[in-house]
């Protein structure tokens, strides 16, 4: 492979669009990172396979590739349901382009773009914008409340020293205790605004540590399953902040489930994925999946905003803080309800130095 060809391969591998190349024998000879991610299969497993082996549940792709060889013209199909071997089907827009050399069709390029990719990215951007405004408002409000709160607590302490009537001390204690409780509440709101202190961190060590905390906290037996990808490298992250984010999400899953309901923790590598409007070559995906009832429909769109909660006893800060902590690392948390399961997915970019 000469320098020009090598550069072309590198460019294609950095595309967010999935690109597959089939030869005249209908064997897959090349696939970029985005294609591996979309099909949930590595190039080692998929290279050399025919369309029937790659898409065993549909003949559409085999037929379209054969027609592209036969009629030698670019064909575009939109909204095609693509069944996958390792997970559910997805809708894609498809472009089939023949490569003609000396009047002979030698190869077919197949480009695949997830139909909901653009919609998801726009929703993500809108949610980030609204959440940023909401968080800034809450942070400002917290600062404004903390100042007079300290004065109220101090006045109650002075009053406590001056009171001779023991029966009245109960009221000053209530003022002091409630001031402390409110101050701690405000501190939790403001904690997510601190900058990450990064070091080499293992995502699975963090998950195991959080599980140990949750098991100690819970008064019932928890049905927790684990499905880890052992190939995930260490990441450069703030360990304490990641622990807090994962802990908030796992606590949420525990609250949403009962004794006979399960929680699944699953890690995978994602390739060529856009997070916070940036294309990342590699990212970690941590799914926290439970088969509880999910977020109530009336608050689902604002689940990550501060003070929004579906629990009567909740503060509405757990998901908001978790989202802020992950976003400060360049990642994001997504929520999805499918097949009677609740998915909270952390997408966390792996820096080039860790890849």
Written description of the protein model:
The structure is a single chain. With 355 residues, the chain is α+β, with helices and mostly antiparallel strands. It folds into three domains: 3-115, 2-Layer Sandwich (Beta-Lactamase), CATH 3.30.450; 119-191; 199-354, 2-Layer Sandwich (Heat Shock Protein 90). The chain is 43% helix and 27% strand. It contains ten helices and twelve strands. A five-stranded antiparallel beta sheet has the order 2-1-5-4-3. A five-stranded mixed beta sheet has the order 7-9-10-12-11. The radius of gyration is 26 Å and the shape is elongated.
Short account of what is shown:
This protein has 355 residues and is α+β, with helices and mostly antiparallel strands. Helices cover 43% and strands 27% of the residues. It has three domains: 3-115, PAS domain (Beta-Lactamase, 2-Layer Sandwich); 119-191; 199-354, Histidine kinase-like ATPase, C-terminal domain (Heat Shock Protein 90), CATH 3.30.565.
